Amino acid sequence: MTDLADLFPNFTHHWLELTAGRFFARMGGQGPALLLLHGFPQSHVMWHKIAPELARHFTVVMMDLRGYGASCIPPSNGGDAYQKSHMANDAIELMQKLGFSHFHCAGHDRGGRVAYRLALDHADIITRCAVLDIIPTSEVWSGMNAARSLSMYHWMFLAQPSPMPETLIGADPIFYLEHTLASWTEARSLKAFDPTALAYYRASFHQPARVHAMCEDYRAGAHYDRLHDERDHNQTRKITIPLLALWGDAGLPAQGASPRDLWQQWADDVSAAAIHSGHFMAEENPRDTARALIDFFSASV
Question: Catalytic site residues?
Answer without folding.
Answer: 109, 279
